[in-house]
Amino acid sequence: MSKKTTIALLSGGLDSATAAAIALEAGQNVIGLSFDYGQRHRKELIAANELASFLNLNEHLKLNVNLAAWGGSSLTDLEQSIPNKGVGDGIPNTYVPGRNTVFIALGLSLAETRGATQIVLGINSMDYSGYPDCRPDYLAAYQALANLSSKAGREGHGAQLWAPLMKWNKVQIVKEAIRLKIPIEKTWSCYSGQNQACGICDSCRIRDAALIKVGRSDLCSTNCI
Amino acid sequence: MSKKTTIALLSGGLDSATAAAIALEAGQNVIGLSFDYGQRHRKELIAANELASFLNLNEHLKLNVNLAAWGGSSLTDLEQSIPNKGVGDGIPNTYVPGRNTVFIALGLSLAETRGATQIVLGINSMDYSGYPDCRPDYLAAYQALANLSSKAGREGHGAQLWAPLMKWNKVQIVKEAIRLKIPIEKTWSCYSGQNQACGICDSCRIRDAALIKVGRSDLCSTNCI
Fold first, then answer.
1. Could you tell me how far CA B28 lies from the centroid of its own chain?
2. What is residue B127's predicted lDDT score, i.e. its pLDDT?
3. Residues of A in contact with B154 (CB under 8 A)
4. A101, A131, A148: best mutation site toward chain B, by most B Cβ within 10 Å?
5. A148 and B154 in contact by Cβ < 8 A?
6. DSSP assignment of chain A, as one string?
7. Would you call A141 and B138 a contact, using CB atoms and an 8 Å cutoff?
8. What is the per-residue pLDDT for A1?
9. Shortest CA distance to A93 belongs to which of A204, A222, A215, A191?
10. CA A105 centroid distance within chain
């Protein structure tokens, strides 16, 4: 029986690389898909390239979809500052309106074209519970839409959205990444848009706290390139 | 009270121009949004510009999102032929996998950023009943997703998807377009990708049949530029 094909949305960060590696370990043919959406930390796309190469993906596609055309987030609007005082209540300004909805839609388009049966996502609801589009009910609603959006979906064999990290916290994700031998030093999490990781944005803080907890402070963001 | 803002997905064709005009007639502030998705009939974008200008939209944004990167449709893959033998059963190869899901997702992103309360769409289920993503159940599922995808949605005041033409056939749409004084000669429907409308692709046939039925054969595709 031929391998099933999975589309992996690959940001260049730790979570999506771990999700892609989980799909590979399950014996699937994985196609990577990355987006230049006008993010200030566009450097993550270099990391996505390196990770796709390290994971030996059959294919890695990159698409421009310039959400910075209308901004609405500190990641896509350079006039907004990246928060660096720790994660608070509510939705942080790093939330990009509609980003996951757009990226998953593009994943569904590619999946339908290539006959892929899954889209594997790095989203998880624990760390960023403030993001409305990282929650289980959001993903369930998207699956219901996907099931109606294509011929295959309506026939009961459309692409399934798969978020293996959904209920994990960052420590669990880091442990899984280490088990899967992901080169964590090649992943890029920093939001700051600098050439070196800042170590103080929410994304660096959450990553580094988890790495310190598992005894791998050598992999903390400011120690990596 | 200030006007409500509506995002109008504007392809350059007759249907979306009519939908946008309906939103304008309802007294809304309309922002047009058009996509260069690598469609062979990219000429429709010139029509979208002219229509946005004619309708006097406050703003008209254009975004590149190159679905031709993976093709899967005769509209985005030049190696596939456009059907010209009339509409048959099943899904025609002009169906673009995931296109509406991607476009509506981008509309939701813009709506959330601008605080728009509606997204007006030209989709209708009568002519293209073969397209899975032009049906009422698809749109209802998308609304359920939209309600969970943003903070405003979760609070009950997110953007509403509005498809005023959903149950109309092309004759009804043409009549409404004439009533709204849309310059039908400026709309572009042809799929062929030529500089002149072909008159024989499904899109030209359906449009022209309706125009002939309402006694306006002077507006048939091959008579327009």
1. 18
2. 63
3. 132
4. A101
5. no
6. -PPPEEEEE--SSHHHHHHHHHHHHTT-EEEEEEEE-S-TTTTHHHHHHHHHHHTT-SEEEEEE--GGGT--STTT-TTSPPP-S---SS--TT--TTHHHHHHHHHHHHHHHHT--EEE----TTTTTT-GGGSHHHHHHHHHHHHHHSHHHHTT-SPEEE-TTTT--HHHHHHHHHHTT--GGG-----S-SSS--S-SHHHHHHHHHHHHTT-GGGSGGG--
7. no
8. 56
9. A191
10. 14
pLDDT, one tens digit per residue, over B55-113 is 999 899 999 999 999 998 989 998 898 888 776 777 888 888 999 999 999 999 999 99
Question: Could you give the C-alpha distances from B145 to A30, B67, B86, in angstroms and in order?
Answer: 26, 22, 35
Q: Measured between CB atoms, does A91 come within 8 Å of chain B?
A: yes
Q: With an 8 Å Cβ cutoff, is B152 touching chain A?
A: no
| A176 in reach of chain B (CB within 8 A) | no
**Rg for chain B, CA atoms, rounded:** 17
Check CB contact of A152 with chain B, cutoff 8 Å. Answer: no
Which residue in chain B is spatially nearest to A31 when comparing CA positions?
B70
Tokens of A98: 């509609």
CB-CB under 8 Å, A145 with B141 = yes
Q: Which amino acid is at B225?
A: I
Residue of B nearest to A69 (CA): B63
Distance between CA atoms of B99 and B161, rounded to whole angstroms?
16
pTM for the predicted model, two decimal places: 0.95
ipTM for this model: 0.95
Q: What letter represents residue B219's amino acid?
A: L
The secondary structure element, H or E, covering residue B33 is: strand B29-36
- 3-state helix vs strand vs coil in chain B, percent to 5: 40, 10, 45
Percentage of chain B beyond pLDDT 70 is 96
Whether residue B130 lies within 8 A of chain A, CB to CB, comes out as no
- For residue A126, how many other CB atoms are within 10 A of its CB? 16
Two structure tokens written together for B138: 């698809």
Distance in angstroms (rounded) separating the CA atoms of residues A120 and A98: 18
**Rounded distance between C-alpha atoms, residue A194 and residue A174, angstroms:** 23
**Which of B97, B110, B142 has the CB atom closest to A145's CB atom?**
B142
